[in-house]
């Protein structure tokens, strides 16, 4: 008798790139993010989030873009490896990700607290990303306690939605992020973030990217 059947699952849909950033980048983003908070560079009117403390960074092309380039190029090269025509619809002739030019359109930091959340939304530009700088253990424990109790993905999770909810169709996925996690994804991909009940602060950074050709 076969106890466990082996099978393959050919994933398809939006290309969401998940990796981790190094501690040095986290330290820089936290330091400059707290400077933005002290200066009260309020970014709420440009964002969908129901979060009180959201602040924009300044001069990010000078200090952030050179460090972050390896991650964006990693996304572009990875999608070239997986798709025959990855940039259809963008008006780009280049077939190699590392030869494309990218522009950071904006960059901001989120200090998410108890009861705050991000509703279902998408972003501008071609690519978007989120980096998690601080994820308190209380949120992780809260997720474990509530798993199977409520009919939702769980507190503090980021949820990506694509396509209709139909029989035999997986229309998205979710993840409880940890410190250092980075997600890069198409800006049009709808996503949301659940609130958590713990009296703690989770810190993340988000931004939008526009792709063009060199020259």
Element layout with pairings:
Blueprint: E1 17-20, H1 23-38, E2 53-56, H2 60-63, H3 65-82, E3 100-113, E4 118-121, E5 127-134, H4 137-146, E6 158-161, E7 172-175, E8 181-186, E9 190-193, E10 201-213
Antiparallel strand pairs: 1-8, 2-3, 3-10, 4-9, 5-8, 5-10, 6-7, 6-9
Rg to the nearest angstrom? 18 Å
- The helicity comes to 10-25%
Domains, number: 1
Looking at the structure, the CATH topology is Jelly Rolls
Distance between the termini: 62 Å
Query: What count of helical segments does DSSP give?
Result: 4
β content, as a range? 25-35%
Shape: globular
Unreliable spans? none
The topology string of helices and strands comes to EHEHHEEEHEEEEE
Q: In terms of structural class, how would the helical and strand content be classed?
A: alpha+beta
